[in-house]
């Protein structure tokens, strides 16, 4: 009997989901056994699989299980089978949006790390990307994407010919508590890493940004003075992410800036199958690979499970505070890559055929490397 038990709600979803989540669970079980911790996995339906079973992409049973778990491990949802031209047909993505909303997830964390063995996949020069290891922290529930918006016709929108013209606006709004809580998530993440936060805003132009900077600094001075804090304007950040990416540790920003910068940062790695993510709120958190359900390769046993395995590592860090064990997973993944093992998507012309592994074999290699 292990000294501690955690209940993990496991949501395989669609496409390659069931194949890759099996490897995430396998690695968690192996790490748990060493740490005298037992993970009890409870599988539930979400997305297309749930639509097929009961017509609802997020069944109540799944929601209840997620809400009462210690953490949620999700694979991915969606696929052509559920693409419908009927606007009233249930869609797999509704399951994903629904669970994020129900869990109150207002923070998205995306790590961007360069593995030396995969540095060739980046479009940046090796000397620029050496040592890149950062986390983008994006606010998820406020800002332009959720503000008041409107589109209408009036005389101001008219062109020179006097015909009625369109106008549209979106509103960028933040409340103080929304900035406070995302700032805390960033500082907490920094304490688990290299203890540095870069806060990104557009203070020279936007009122929301002036408030953002003020609030981030107040939270820092009152609660996290031990963490190094720097401010950067968003346009400058876009340049510095390419110019000196290895200098960043935790980068925190509002919703739209984060949407854009996290894709830019992710592109530095060049390998989609390696990108993990975490979504945090004040209760149960959710961990999933950034990529989709890859229907083109589903069921073939060739999907790359490493993003899912690294998401399981993030679950240990951010949901269970098992930072040391999470580090062991990251080290194991690095070792497997350094030893030349690849799944098809991250192999290149120099990879010998006998070093290209299937999904389950890659999971086994990581478990071996943990030992
Ligand atoms: P995708 O990320 O599923 O696939 C893009 C390409 O990357 C494909 O060639 C795929 O084979 C490859 N790929 C992705 N993950 C891989 C892995 N782990 N190993 C090896 N190769 C991998 O994006 P898409 O094709 O645009 O979308 C497919 C479905 O996934 C759609 O229904 C989409 O809505 C859904 N989707 C879901 C999520 C999510 O669940 N969070 C995110 C994005 C897309």
**Strand portion, in percent?**
15-25%
SSE run: EHEHHEHEHEEEHEHEHEHEEHHH
Structural class: alpha/beta
Oligomer: single chain
Question: Which value, in Å, is the CA radius of gyration?
Answer: 22 Å
Q: Give the strand line-up of the largest sheet.
A: 2-1-3-12-11-4-5-10-8-9
The hetero molecules present are: nicotinamide-adenine-dinucleotide
Distance between the termini: 21 Å
Low-confidence stretches: none
Enter the CATH topology name of the largest domain: Isopropylmalate Dehydrogenase
Number of domains: 2
Provide a descriptive summary of the structure in words:
This protein has twelve helices and twelve strands. With 371 residues, the chain is an alpha/beta fold. The chain has two domains: 1-104 and 285-371, 3-Layer(aba) Sandwich (Isopropylmalate Dehydrogenase); 133-267, 3-Layer(aba) Sandwich (Isopropylmalate Dehydrogenase), CATH 3.40.718.10. The strands form two sheets. It has a ten-stranded mixed β-sheet, with helices on both faces. A two-stranded antiparallel sheet has the order 6-7. The longest helix is centred in the first third of the chain and has 19 residues, at 17-35. The protein is globular, with a radius of gyration of 22 Å. The protein starts with a strand and ends with a helix. The site of nicotinamide-adenine-dinucleotide has 21 residues, from loops. The site of nicotinamide-adenine-dinucleotide (NAD) has 21 residues, from loops.
